[in-house]
Amino acid sequence: MLENNLKSSIEKAFETIFSPIGDLPVTVQKTRKDVAGDYTVNVFPFLKISKTNPQETAEKIGKYLVENNENIAKYEVIKGFLNLYIKAEYWLNEFKSSYKNVDFGISSSKPDAAVTMIEYSSPNTNKPLHLGHIRNNLLGYSVAELLKAAGKNVVKVNLVNDRGIHICKSMLAWQKWGNNATPESTGKKGDKLVGDYYVKFDKAYKQEIESLVSSGMEKEKAEKEAPILKEAQTMLRQWEAKDPEIFNLWQTMNGWVYEGFDITYKALGIDFDKIYYESNTYLLGKKIVMEGLEKGVIFKKEDGSVWADLTEDGLDQKLLLRADGTSVYMTQDIGTAQQRFDEYPIEDHIYVVGNEQNYHFQVLKLILKKLGYNWSDSIHHLSYGMVELPEGKMKSREGTVVDADDLIADMIQTARETSQELGKLEGYSEEEKESVYNTIALGALKYFMLKVDPKKGMMFNPKESIDFNGNTGPFIQYTYARIQSLKRKWAKEIEFSFEDSLLNEKEIELIKKVKDFENTIQDAAKAYSPAMIASYVYELAKEFNQFYHDFTILKEENESIKVMRLALSQWIGHTIKNSMKILGIAVPERM
């Protein structure tokens, strides 16, 4: 890469003019937009080596670079900072070598390399996927695609939370009020049917609490003593004991949910390399906890519950096994982590989970470390902010969440109405129109979710997301379709001879922008931030549209310039498509 080339030249310059810089890092950064030049070098850290003032140091280094690096056209020194200008010939050669490369910017991963594992989705089998799950799924999938594009060997995994008290709540409510209802008999997706009974349980639970409180019981005690909760706790113990009736009901209802999840995942374009189930890993977690108990790392309280004492680490005591022997989330996470590190040569394990679980993952790493697992240092929690709507937060227990399937359907309808108003798809068959509506809708949804930095919370507004102007998925999709239209109208292989004189300043700036895709991928991968890719591709699309407005392409009279601009457009098209692919977004050939 050019940056590495420049760093080597600068190190050589210091060694030649002054003395070797040793371990001091050379920082070469892209020049700010309000400053002329392509790259800026801060020489202040090296003044103790040069033993001259910043201006003189920068001048000497700049002169050396112009004389000894064929890529540098000239330099300027501004307040002690060295600004370098790259020759147009360099950008032309980059253009020449890459404009036909449909995978430009994408690094190849080695299948036998150490694994980067990414866990995302992690749904509970007591409710359908909702808006919050959508951000999780889209973020996890996109981070996986981003790391693959950066050359990592990625394994995408899902941990289904298919056991526990919350699952038993839905099961118990179905037993009480289901009347043998099934997805087939009700016409509902299985995950939605089961979710309805989770809501029914919560309503009944609250009514019982109110009744106990009105009879004189303290609310805190009533929350623990409500009969329906006691029944759910009994059911959990029966499940862990493999009671045939309870276990069969659990398998049946979970089967309904999985079928529903698969429909939603397919609609979102999400997949996994492997799916883990809490019901298969919690026993391993319990075994590891009991071994920790024997070693004295874990302790047991008088009521029989098992805990990890983290007070010396500035935290608190963490429950690992309840007094009745049933396990908690932390227990199964310990078991799942152990199983994964046994199965794969993992160098980085990324958990994509909302920021309300920051403490959970802090504790998980610490407990694993205390248990002797040095690979716990490889665990990384990709903490993201919550999604809210204009009307406020969502609550699963109260049935006030925005269902993922409903949201996708609404987005498609909005895309349909917007496209029809703008007359974008005239001459298309109905089947073609529906395909484009779906592509636009999912592009709008995914881009709106992913353009926000993962660490930040966000407000989702569906209507704002579907707009053919501004920082939106449809705007970028339309830009790609515009480029494909140019290629169809040209209808020939794009071949041309490269001459410096053909390039104007705007074209050189576009080449620089496309070339920056490689660095953007690497930087975004280090930050686990698809938002950086979204920002990059929007700026690229915006710059191309300005170029398209200001300069002729197909109507250009100079044949060489015309073909050069077509080639540049093609290269930009490849880059837009690759950028959007990282975001999990399809781009239509026509729109």
Low-confidence stretches: 393-399
Give the helix proportion (percent range): 55-70%
The assigned CATH architecture of the largest domain is 3-Layer(aba) Sandwich
CATH topology of the largest domain: Rossmann fold
Strand content: 5-15%
Structural class: alpha/beta
CATH homologous superfamily annotation of the largest domain: HUPs
How many β-strand runs?
A: 14
Largest sheet: 5 strands, parallel
Rg measurement, Å: 29 Å
Rounded average pLDDT: 92
Main sheet strand line-up: 7-6-5-11-12
What is the first-to-last residue Cα distance? 36 Å
Architecture blueprint of SSEs:
Elements: H1 2-17, E1 28-30, E2 39-42, H2 47-50, H3 54-68, E3 72-78, E4 81-86, H4 88-98, E5 115-119, H5 131-149, E6 153-160, H6 165-177, H7 183-186, H8 190-214, H9 219-225, H10 227-240, H11 244-268, E7 274-277, H12 278-295, E8 299-300, E9 306-309, E10 317-321, H13 329-343, E11 346-354, H14 358-370, E12 379-384, E13 387-388, H15 404-422, H16 430-450, E14 458-459, H17 462-465, H18 473-490, H19 505-515, H20 517-527, H21 530-550, H22 559-582
Parallel strand pairs: 5-6, 5-11, 6-7, 11-12, 13-14
Antiparallel strand pairs: 1-2, 2-4, 3-4, 8-9, 9-10
Helix pairs in contact: 1-3, 4-19, 5-20, 6-8, 6-10, 8-9, 8-11, 12-13, 15-16, 18-21, 18-22, 19-21, 19-22, 20-21, 21-22
